[in-house]
Amino acid sequence: MRSLRLTVGAFVVAAVLALIATPANAAVWWSTDRWGTWSNGGYTLYNNVWGSGFGPQTIWANSPNNWGVWANHPNTGGIKSYPNATRWIGRRVSVLGTVTSNFNVSVPTSGVAFTTAYDIWSSDNAHEIMLWMNKYGPVGPLGSFQTTATVGGHTWNVYRGSNGANQVYSFIRTSNTNSGSVDVRAVAQWIRNRGWFGDVTIGNVQFGYEITSSSGGRDFITNSFSVNG
């Protein structure tokens, strides 16, 4: 009987662990691989655990427009991951046409350090535009403060710097928001008009969560997301 009780107990523990490890919303795809990727409908989702000292992270998707991650990264410094959804644009700023993006997220607001951010790249990866829609905990942008500007549908504190590999233009929203629309073309044209870059080709438009810490495991949920144009 003791052996039977141990066997039943082990089965119950295993079942509970399986429920914890498998995201409830993962109707279509999920992955615990730090480099897990999934492409669908013109978008690619990346788990993208690229930092050091990271913990476990699971990405799930009902669709490329409705996805999220459960992340359990320790309360230490340094970015651990940037899970994101990516869409390729491939047009120069001068002929970009209308490019807008809509988003709606549900995120933790205490005991964490992260930003919900767009990462918009020139096709040669020489220029990186970051749009911080919300931020919590001890996180901050790269570079030095330049100005406060209203562009692309939001008011931002704008920073400019370099990470050693590319130029970074960080637009930090002056107040947090969990939903909205962004005019990507307007932001790119604003940067070009200031002479910070030329008629570059806009490549990947990414949207996700740049996570520094989420100890104990936290959910970051993209309720909806799209890039249009």
Q: Terminal Cα separation, in Å?
A: 66 Å
Structural class category: mainly beta
Q: Can you name the CATH architecture?
A: Sandwich
The H/E string reads HEEEEEEEEEEEEEHEE
Count of discrete alpha- or pi-helical segments spanning 4 or more residues:
2
What low-confidence regions span 5 or more consecutive residues with pLDDT below 50? Answer: 1-22
**Any idea what the CATH superfamily is called?**
Glycoside hydrolase family 11/12, catalytic domain
Helix fraction by DSSP (H/I, runs of at least 4): 10-25%
Describe the structure.
The chain has 229 residues and is mainly β. The chain has one domain (28-228): Glycoside hydrolase family 11/12, catalytic domain (Jelly Rolls), CATH 2.60.120. 13% of the residues lie in helices and 49% in strands. It has two helices and 15 strands. The chain has a nine-stranded mixed beta sheet, with helices on one face. A six-stranded antiparallel beta sheet has the order 1-4-5-15-7-13. A hairpin with a 2-residue loop joins β2 and β3 (43-46). The radius of gyration is 19 Å and the shape is globular. The termini are far apart. Residues 1-22 have low confidence and may be disordered.
